[in-house]
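Lab meeting, action items carried over

1. Structure of the three-component assembly. Owner: GW. Status: complete.
Input record:
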Amino acid sequence: MTTTTLPRPSLFAFLRQAYSHATNGGPLFYAWMTLLTCVALVGVNAWANQVVGGMQVTGMGDHVSWGLYISNFTFFVGVAAAAVMMVIPAYLYHDHEMHDAVIVGELLAIAAIVICLLSVTVDLGRPDRFWHLMPVIGRFNWPISLLTWDVIVLNGYLGLNAWICGYLLWSRWRGVAPSPRLYLPFVFLSILWAVSIHTVTAFLYCGLGGRPFWNTALLAPRFLASAFVAGPALIIVVLLTLQRLGGYPFGDKPVHMLVRVVRITALINLFMLAVECFTALYTGSTHAASLRYLLFGMHGHHALVPWMWSAITLNVVAAAAFQWPGLLKRPRLLITACLMTFVGIWIEKGMGLVVPGFIPSTMHEIVEYVPSLTEWKVTLGIIAGGALIYTLLLKVALPLIAGWTPGLSVGVEAMDAQHRRLFEQLNVLVAAVRSGRGAEELGRTLDFLDGYVREHFTDEEKLMSDAGYPAVEGHRRLHASFIAELEAVRAGLATAGTDRQVLAERLHLSLRDWLLRHIQVEDRAYGEFLAARS
Amino acid sequence: MSDLTRRTVLKAAGATLGATAFAAAIAPLTQWKPAESVDEFLRKHYKELAPDELDAICRRVEAEAKTSRGIDVHVAAPQPIPGVQYGYALNLSICVGCRRCAEACHTENNHDRPSHNSYIRVFELDNGSIDLATGDATYEHPVPAKGKYYMPVQCHHCANAPCTKVCPVEATWKEQDGIVVVDYNWCIGCRYCEAACPYHARRFNWKKPEIPNDEINPDQGYLSNRVRPQGVMEKCTFCLHRTREGRLPACLEACPTGARVFGNLADPDSELRWVLANKRVFILKEDLGTKPTFFYFFDK
Amino acid sequence: MSPRLSALGVVLAVLVAAAFAAEIADRPVVTTTDTTPKAQHPVVRNSHPAPRVQTGITDHAGRPATIACSTCHAIRTPNPANHAGTDLDQFHQGLQFQHGGSTCLSCHDPGNYDNLRLADGRKVAFENSIELCSQCHGPQRRDYDHGAHGGMNGYWDLTRGGRYRNTCIDCHDPHVPKYQAAIPMPHPRDRFQLPTGAIHE
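Predicted assembly:
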């Protein structure tokens, strides 16, 4: 048997398709992108004015010398680190149902790191001297300065996630199975690395002996705990939103897994905050001055008190909500709880952790800090920029994950069209399930899918027989076994008492996985046979 | 097809609009004049400069003062004196809190006038307590006030300096003679050192310093009191443009009571060493292990 | 007292002073020498000579005529009990005096008011008043000698240059030696946008 290798789609074609995916969408997409662009541009403009006029346009001074920018930086390091919450089950424990959702987490890590790097950049008094920070051409004070460690781990984490996502998507685009050697070591490294980025960021603070508020060994554990609250909370919101708006069939499992994570981490985070408060406040040490200022105000100054109590309230209420099993059945409430704790952690870790480190100052002077309008503009601009990048990354990646790609071409146009239609129908099915349509409509969708699968298999088998493809019998058996499986699942759906949603999503995931692998291997084999013949 | 074309046109229009808006957003940057030449921008780190390069740079700073301000200044880069380790001791028993040291620092070191900046901050504390939380650095009543004592705080030039450790680009370091300096042309302005310093000794140039030309101290050091650029850190340098030529620092000369003792720690016969050996010396925040070369002492 | 009578008094006083001159010369006069061993450049102490008293008269060139303390004091009998301006009936009545239990003659030499004198009777020139102060204020003198008391300027490194030093009476009025309170120099502002003293919020 002679075979010809079917051509794989080129990088250029990939980029073209990525561009097309990234720039095409419905009115909601365009409105969202326009909004983000506008906010980002307002931020760019505010930053340009800050560069020209100096950092005097911020609310910072020699007493509180870090503010909103570094607060936001610290928070988003945590968000980036939280991507591992999806990576660990997906890759370490080979949980197939996590495989689609994990890319959502990894891409979020990329966007979050970009937010971090931008937040640090806008905090620089001399952004024009950024190159001094680069090894070799600058003067990199490594390993003494923890900030150089942060530069390494943040950029390393960005690189790792960019590589893992890029390689997996590229493989999917080309229709080949990714080589584990080329991504698994990086996946395991990224898990350790995620812990490192937040540990190193905590060390930036707790390594400063002159600031007792930060100088605590509990800081890194607290950072990680709060990261594993805020990060998963955001990913839950993103998954639910994508399922609702884009019809992406992630299934319930990733969300359930993340909710279980937040249930624990939210409590651990609150526990550690309580431990910090006890240790500092019970002794009455002057080292607790910042905490006292933060919680109760001091000498008539209480700018941070409302912030902190809002954060505590949000986190406590959200943590309690997460313990309630019924939350999973109520997406709106779940999203609300996630957003509450996201905002709560943002305050606790930013304004509630970075700023009080400076109040009172090292010489115990109380100079308060309120971010200026410029700082708000720049910070919101950066977050909008990160959201913009994240949206574009998801726009490119999700169709690749869930749909037919040119790399899956078997070289026969009719078959490619049917395959594409099959993928589309799978997504329609899950969209129907997710949007809570009635059993009747669900049944109709399944009927259609069933009929379409049979039709396609018949066409394909006829094509193979006509061409004298030698392995046609084996191929037919595979088709038959798949239809049998489909029937079994349909029967299960018809039986009363079965959790239809779970069943349908499982069906979908195993069906699509099967289809993907089937097209990649067996269908491609006949495609190459046909190509060699003609 | 017409739909596709329309979409393309709309996309092109959107992209053009976006690009125009972006250009408008960054437009303020065109007004940015970092007040330094391309040579200065590409300058090597201070420690990598050969003596002749350093000399040429000093001449350039002088020339820039002439062009931009029309004034003659002398910029020198005095090097550490072998065998000298600078130290400073301050007598809390006789400091009256007059802030003349802070004022002398202000004029000597070409500080920003509107902020009335100084590397020295004088704290008024209650007798019988060394709790800094009771301190006040903004008193305006006649001093010394009853029941109070005064503690001027400035850079402690620590042997184990937290600020130099944290700097990501080595823009601040401890010189051979113990003086902690900042390379104003290397600092990226991240302010990590300011967060690290336990003595509130560092100052950031939140904007371009403003000093009338006729008030500029023309006797300038490259690493010390030359006029700093916007967006960089600065700090007390023990007036190295004076002290490395054997002169006393400006804050000491301004002190009316002689509360300040400056000298060579490495010289066992120095007045400073006598103070350290014979007075009740204490080190501010000694528990932090910063090992300052700035000491406080009491007479009684 | 008319100007004529005053002038007569001055002349008389000068004559009496000259008569005492021989006796002054006999007594030992304490002087201070700089003891800094490695000094190549001098440490110069501020010099305050014996004060001169304004007469209110100008000479032919219009310069104010001043007289030495001894001009008057030579013809007056010293009163060891005096210890404040209020004890006096003619001169120095406004003089504030708050300096422990000392009397005028604790420091001023009744034998010659153009000198000071130590407790043991040795004469000290006004230029060396520090020696007088040091009798009681030993610790301050010790600190002064070690550069730990009293303002100065010049060079820390005496091999490179000299130094000028204040002496006791530059800061301490000998009659009211307590350091006087004064308005301090302005403090730095915490934020440049705000007026002095405002706390940013």
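2. GW to write a short summary for the group page. Key points so far: Chain B is about 30% helix and 15% strand. The CA atoms of residues 2 and 35 of chain B lie 54 Å apart.
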